[in-house]
Amino acid sequence: MLMKLARLSLWNRRGTVLMTWLSLTISIALLLGIDHLRTEAKSSFTSTVSGTDLIVGARSGQLNLLLYSVFRIGNATANISWPTYQRIIKHPQIDWAIPISLGDSHRGYRVMGTNSDYFKHYRYANSQPLVLAQGEPFAQVFDTVLGAEVALKLGYKLGEQIELSHGVGAVSFSQHKDKPFTVVGILAATGTPVDQTVHVSLEAIEAIHLDWQQGAPMPGRQLSSEQVLAMDLTPKSITAFMLGLKSRMATFTLQRQINEFKNEPLSAILPGVALAELWQMLSMVENLLLLISLLVLLAALVGMITTLLASMKERQREMAILRAAGAHPWYLFVLIQVEVLLVTLLSMLSAAALLLLSLYLLQDRLAADFGLFISLNIIKLNTLYWAGGILLLSALLATLPGILAYRKALADGLTVRL
Amino acid sequence: MTDKPKIPAIELKQLQFFYQRGGWQLNLPELTLHCGQHLFVRGASGSGKTTLLNLLCGITRPVSGELYINGQPLHKLSSSARDSLRAKHIGVVFQQLNLIPYLSVLDNTLLSSHFAGQNKAAALNRAKTLLQRLGLNAELWHKAANQLSVGQQQRVAIARALLPKPVLLIADEPTSALDSDNRDAFMRVMLAEADANGCSVIFVSHDQSLTQYFHTQLDMQQLAKGVQPC
């Protein structure tokens, strides 16, 4: 009977209840959505690189090194000479190494010079290897493998010829026009900066810069692709390299040894630690968003209580009838609580549905535009905590009209002062 | 129920009530109403009718004196005990707007048995019988209460009040919104049903012509002190 009363009473006031339900739905969806995006973005972010024990670059702060080597943001301060690289990777604890050479771009996408070990050893998310959606890794000097987003956005297919630009701007004035590359492979989407990278061999990086000096083509000394291929293409330097160790126990020892390397100032960082530090900086924004959505929720709940309080006057007759029929004032209090919880519960369900629908519709866009891979699974332990918290909060706020009903019932008795 | 015929429906002794000391007062030296006896309470507005009804219903507690409903000392009971006493033993019918508009006729009737904590199936059967006897046919039962005429609504209120087999039915000018034909029909059917259920009726009205239906009369004017003429 209590449920029936609450249900029918709400239905009787469906106009205002509908608006309350709508505002609650939107604000709960907003809150859950932001919380969901937050955790998904975090996991997407921290899964950018995995399985790599150390990243080594020229001496710099760890964030700078992480940003340019993994996220392709910013530039290296200096390069590492090839002999140094060769010497370090001979260390007995090192299982594999991936050299990285940056500095060129293709229509705004960074070009990364590397070798075949990249496709073999690079891992992201839960130790997932890179998978080629089409084609195969580069074999020839002027072959290139594109990240998923590069191929999708620029509409490249296997076999197409592309030109690289010197420097990293979206519009570059110095092009490596004379040495076109052939697309031989396209990687499957990873949700990491790999998708936005154009991969070529280290030799190719060397080849396109042979006839360059001081960042500009040398006048009067143009080399054709064929001429270049005949020359020694061993790189002179690389930007950074990633290391996988045989035993994780050796990580700190090796890190110290690299940091104290005599011949060249180097920095070795632990990607996990650097990622956590970076995320901490970004989490300010995320926490702010969460706070705002919490306030929106609070506003919606207060709105619900306001409409309830306003409706108490027109419901005096109803309350008096219930009292006359034998209801204790507590019953009226509980009735109002049940009404509030019903509306909140309903709003939570519709908010979940709204969130699922919008995620479903936005999933592809988010992946394409922001490289964010958001799962549709919004029900996590965290969500349940939120749901419990929202219900608790609404029950807490509902005590206000509840107490009003209780006290009015005691004061007015069976008469209704209209 | 453990009703014994000897226990009066209402027994009150030296009942006194006031909102403020020295202000308006209600004094009832003695009143006993046996089960099945009906009482007509007459009085102009402001004469303390509502206060008396609130006292009898257990909504307010007397300042001094004794009040027994069905043998239970209402003046000593806690407010929740008074609430459950009201739910079980007292039926209330107001002037008008007795029903919750969004509940069906049947659900409105069943409210009282819900609060009295009675068996649902039995209450449903009894509610149907009562409604039928009050001239409310099955086709009306599932209609929303506000679709009924005022006379019909008042009869639903009677059915609700009588459903938990109360010893006392308190009616606060239930006929004031009815025309004279409807009023007489209402009085007859209400008293007939009250008699059939062995229930005493306390009927409050300023309509002198209704006294013919009652055994006893009580004039509020004689009880209240310091009444302002209006």
Automatic annotation (TrEMBL), chain A:
InterPro entries recorded for this chain?
Answer: ABC-4/HrtB_transporter (IPR051125), ABC3_permease_C (IPR003838), MacB_PCD (IPR025857)
Q: Known Pfam families for this protein?
A: FtsX (PF02687), MacB_PCD (PF12704)
Q: Name one GO cellular component term.
A: plasma membrane
The places in or outside the cell where this protein is found are:
Cell membrane
Q: How does it sit in the membrane?
A: Multi-pass membrane protein
Q: In this protein, which residues make up the domain named ABC3 transporter permease C-terminal?
A: 291-408
Q: Which residues are in the MacB-like periplasmic core domain?
A: 18-206
User: What name has this protein been given in UniProt?
Assistant: ABC transporter permease
UniProtKB/TrEMBL annotation, chain B:
Cross-referenced Gene3D superfamilies: P-loop containing nucleotide triphosphate hydrolases
Q: Does the keyword Lipid metabolism apply?
A: no
Q: Where is the ABC transporter domain?
A: 10-226
CDD domains linked to this entry: ABC_MJ0796_LolCDE_FtsE
- Give GO terms: molecular function aspect only: ATP binding; ATP hydrolysis activity; transmembrane transporter activity
Answer whether the UniProt record assigns the keyword Transport to this protein: yes
Stretches of the chain forming a coiled coil according to its record: none
Which terms are listed as keywords in the entry?
ATP-binding, Nucleotide-binding, Transport
GO cellular component assignments: plasma membrane
Specify the domain of life of the species encoding this protein. Bacteria
The record, for InterPro entries, names: AAA+_ATPase, ABC_transporter-like_ATP-bd, ABC_transporter-like_CS, ABC_transpr_LolD-like, MacB-like_ATP-bd, P-loop_NTPase
Q: Which Pfam families match?
A: ABC_tran
Q: What is this protein called?
A: ABC transporter ATP-binding protein
Instruction: Tell me which species this is from.
Output: Rheinheimera lutimaris
